[in-house]
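Subject: for your reference before the review

Hello V.,

The reviewers asked for a structural picture of the protein, and I figured it would be easier to keep everything in one thread rather than splitting it across files. Below is the amino acid sequence we used in the manuscript, unchanged from the supplementary table.
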Amino acid sequence: MSFKETIEKTATDWISDLESRSPDIVVSKWSDEIHYAVHPDKSGVYPMTREQFRTNDGTAAIFQNLKSFKISINEIYSDAEKRTVTMVCTSNGESEVGPYSIDCLFALTGVDSIWVTPVNITYLGRFDS
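And here is what came back from the structure prediction:
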């Protein structure tokens, strides 16, 4: 497997971890140096470290309020030299207030075969399709 394929697999595995709706599973492969950010940051709590994400009440509440949750990767762009993966995704699910579908963008930098090096994961928000 090429390094490009390896970092893309790491990124897509992270999407699968997100679908588990468990903060412990989501961060299970993250290093202590990881930073997770959301843009725009309307809550003022980002970026977060691995432990901050795992123990954040807001993160737990989001996962608990989802009855179902699926992220489809529509497009994936990677640069092995820069160790970056950008994914254009659609998230579909059912929450306590009803069904939803949003398009979103994830940018992962510093990606490796496992999350042992400083990685930045950025949720760049929803966008209108």
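For the response letter, the relevant points are probably these. The mean pLDDT is 81. Residues 3-127 form a domain with the Nuclear Transport Factor 2; Chain: A, fold (CATH 3.10.450.50).

Happy to draft the paragraph if you're swamped.

O.
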